[in-house]
Specification:
The complex is a heterodimer of chains A (276) and B (161).
Chain A: H1 6-11, E1 12-18, E2 21-27, E3 30-34, E4 40-41, H2 51-61, H3 70-74, E5 77-79, E6 85-95, E7 98-111, H4 121-129, E8 134-138, H5 144-155, E9 164-168, E10 183-187, H6 191-201, E11 206-209, H7 217-225, E12 229-235, H8 239-243, H9 246-253, E13 259-264, E14 270-275
Helix pairs in contact in A: 4-5, 6-7
Chain B: H1 2-48, H2 52-58, H3 62-67, H4 69-73, H5 80-88, H6 98-103, H7 113-160
The chains are: A alpha/beta (276), B mainly alpha (161).
């Protein structure tokens, strides 16, 4: 049993378990390794999980029901009830170029979910003045999901709560703390489909979705053209990187996104709102 | 008075025979409960991908509750396999195909939905005729036990009076 100091425990963003390979902790300071005496060490001396421990970990994450998470596991994650998720990878079975199943899971990344209600307060104040499509970007692990969660919370609470639709493909945008929010959520299905259903059936004022990519651009454009404000996130260190992706560049050019929020971690941590 | 006493002894014999048969029926009722549980699991997995612990928690069956099977399933075990094994320990040893019922434990929940439903369906298909057969046997036995009880009562009455 490894015991971590409360200070270190509060800094952990991810716990990465690997069968027969070193366990690591992801923090803002980098990847840390722990030896059996709970001291920081190098990868060679670090504790590692056995295959059976990893199997038990997966059984616990899926409540002993792998079939219930089949589709998610194929896409590399297991959603957890508190809004966090575990990334999984291992030996896959491919048919026709697509992953049919994951035969052996030998790496699990437990991402620590954080609910920081005020993370998007400044941006939400601007949104309340004028509802404009907003693109949130940062490199992976930059806090985009935490930011979107906060935006969903702030826009859907209070006297002037908006009708917020959440296309929550990976089941991670809503946490138990958000039970009093006026949020309509569709989870567990592709974002494109969720955005289409929300637009057609729930008449949202704002749609929030995480990690837009190649698919879903058409549906986001249709939703924006119906008068819905889109708040979405994507990976990217700066706006030039993002503009190099044709689908996202097309959404920006067509006016779906008029503002962008750049998230920074580390010493210059914070969010920076700019017009596109 | 003697005639009344004889009738009471015969009726008591009949009732005792019935009670002896009833105690033999526990295994049959438990097996029927297992069949119902398998059907509930199959439907839950097939239709809503319900996780096993939620399916266990929603299921109820008087006879499986009486023997402690349901509470063992819902006792908060870390895995479905452990919960299933603990629950199988509470079943009567006369439950048909008990070894096969127990053997699905390690596979419970640890594969895709199709494999899970196939596993459960195959067990249910094999178990169903055995349960029906044991039901028929038990009905025949129950009637024999009662008749035997009544005959013993008659013999006792004749000997006494």
């Amino acid at each position: 049993m490894i015991k971590l100091s409360p200070v270190l425990a509060s800094q952990i963003d991810e716990i990465r378990l690997r069968a027969g390979r070193p366990m690591s902790l992801t923090t803002q300071k980098g990847n840390l390794f722990i030896d059996p005496q709970s001291r920081l060490c190098g990868p060679a001396d670090a504790v590692s999980a056995t295959e059976s421990e990893l199997r038990e970990c997966v059984a616990r994450l899926t409540r002993s029901s792998v079939y219930a998470y089949e589709e998610c596991i194929r896409r590399g994650f297991i959603p957890l009830p508190d809004g966090s998720r575990a990334g999984v990878c291992g030996e896959t079975v491919c048919v026709g170029g697509a992953i049919k199943s994951v035969k052996v899971i030998d790496s699990v990344s437990l991402r620590v979910s954080r609910f920081i209600p005020d993370a998007a307060r400044g941006v939400c104040a601007a949104l309340r003045r004028e509802l404009l499509g907003t693109l949130v970007y940062s490199p992976p692990g930059g806090g985009k999901t935490t930011f979107l969660r906060s935006a969903a919370y702030l826009l859907s609470t209070g006297r002037e709560a908006l009708r917020v639709g959440v296309a929550d493909e990976r089941d991670e945008l809503i946490t138990p703390e958000m039970s009093a929010c006026t949020i309509d959520r569709i989870s567990g299905c592709p974002k494109a489909l969720a955005v289409e259903i929300l637009t057609r059936t729930m008449s949202p004022q704002v749609i929030i979705c995480d990690e837009i990519g190649v698919s879903g651009a058409e549906e986001l454009l249709a939703a924006a053209n119906s008068g819905v404000c889109i708040i979405a996130s994507c990976h990217g260190a700066d706006i030039n990187e993002i503009m190099s992706r044709p689908q996202i560049a097309a959404l920006i050019k067509s006016g779906v996104f008029r503002r962008a929020v750049r998230l920074r971690r580390g010493e210059r941590a914070g969010s920076e709102l700019h017009t596109l | 008075m003697k005639l009344f006493a004889c009738a009471v002894i015969v009726a008591a014999g009949w009732l005792l025979g019935g009670m002896a048969a009833e105690s033999k029926r526990a295994a049959y009722y438990q097996a029927r409960g297992i069949l119902r549980l398998l059907a509930a699991l199959r439907a839950g997995i097939d239709y809503a991908r319900t996780d096993l612990f939620s399916a266990f928690a929603r299921f109820s069956d008087k006879h499986l509750e009486e023997c402690g099977f349901i509470s063992a399933l819902n006792s908060g075990a870390v895995s479905a396999e452990k919960a299933w094994n603990a629950a199988c320990d509470t079943l009567s040893p006369n439950v048909p195909m008990l070894a096969e019922i127990r053997s699905i434990g390690p596979m419970l929940g640890m594969s895709d939905a199709q494999t899970q439903t196939e596993l459960i369906s195959k067990l249910a298909l094999r178990l169903e005729p055995r349960v029906e057969e044991s039901g028929r046997e038990l009905r025949a036995k129950a009637s024999n036990y009662r008749i035997l009880g009544a005959l013993m009562g008659c013999m006792a009455a004749i000997i006494i009076y």
